[in-house]
User: Fold these one by one.
Assistant:
Number 1:
Amino acid sequence: QVQVVESGGGLVKPGGSLRLSCAASGFTFSDYYMSWIRQAPGKGLEWLSYISGSGTTINYAVSVEGRFSISRDNAKNSLYLQMNSLRAEDTAVYYCARVGDTWPFDCWGQGTLVAVSS
Amino acid sequence: QSALTQPASVSGSPGQSITISCTGTSSDFGTYNYVSWYQQHLGKAPKLMIYSVGTRPSGVSNRFSGSKSGNTASLTISGLQAEDEADYYCSSYRTSDTLIFGGGTRLTVL
């Protein structure tokens, strides 16, 4: 069964850092682009970043470029999001998602909550 | 980057059909047919309902259909059921090699 499971969320102070992880199973991880998407409380979905199966192609939303870094370890079937210089407005549920051939997010995790507050 | 434009809310009675619009630009809908739609029930993760404008993933009811004309995409739900009450989001790939979501539409089944 195709599945992704996020972890690593929590409470962090403004200016702090956090690393999210996403464990994938049920598919050949290295064959797929993967992405991070977030949803602030009561707000809509915001795409953040994607990474190609080999890790050679990466792109970010303007809102997080320079502060967030996406990476993957295909040997461990894992996706990561390193988040630095966190701000209150980064408070959100962060989702990991598999990306299909024509750019649909076809498998989502349950999300992990990141709260940025002093 | 501005979100794709969706109505904040739509409503319909059981058995009726409703359509949710999603307006983009020449940088997304005008260039690509990479339009997807997602359903999100309260407190749950989003679920892919439509991709490539009008293709349903396996397991999604054929009451859900998608289309695109120019810079506007649409999701139509026919034979509305109580379980369809949820938030719906469109998304697209863009010429900047990024992705974008719509602001979301809350569907209420009366």
Note: The interface with chain A takes residues 1, 3, 33-34, 36, 38, 40, 45-48, 51-52, 57, 89, 91-93, 97-104 of chain B (CB under 8 Å).
Number 2:
Amino acid sequence: EAGVVQSPRYKIIEKKQPVAFWCNPISGHNTLYWYLQNLGQGPELLIRYENEEAVDDSQLPKDRFSAERLKGVDSTLKIQPAELGDSAVYLCASSEGGFYNEQFFGPGTRLTVL
Amino acid sequence: KQEVTQIPAALSVPEGENLVLNCSFTDSAIYNLQWFRQDPGKGLTSLLLIQSSQREQTSGRLNASLDKSSGRSTLYIAASQPGDSATYLCAAGGDRDDKIIFGKGTRLHILP
């Protein structure tokens, strides 16, 4: 069974540029999460989807971040414009049947903003 | 607001020793607690998930326990091996606010 797929694995951009990350969850997993992880820290939730509905986006900086999961399968996270402080690893995870269940993570996208 | 703490931040032990990693949480109203390992530059790998009604879970050389009343979980690793070297993170799922809060992790180094 394929795991959570993320692309790209690495991205280097200059500040004020836009960037997008893509995630394909494990087949059949209706819950999808986007996390941000800074060096030496645990992941922090940005947004959680149940199917195509964003049920928790309270930690998403909505002035520059946006996300979508149009058909309830794969998802895209966008930053526009990027700032120096956005440099971090962006992790996608999925779980089956809601957030009470085990989460499985993708390899992450390491973003560097210059 | 839930806070999750993992102490120590780093740990080095000789190969073959049994060891315990600690995770504490401030709000006992959790629905589950999950342990992960993270290798450098990689995503998180799920190790064990303990539901709030359970006291422990076991997988191979790993055993995780949960004591909600004291706000603690431990991950026991038996007969440690160099391949166990990684960062171990715990995450508590909140029953009040449906938030999943991670600790900062314990960096484990097993000395050959």
Note: Residues 10 and 110 of chain A are 5 Å apart (CA to CA).
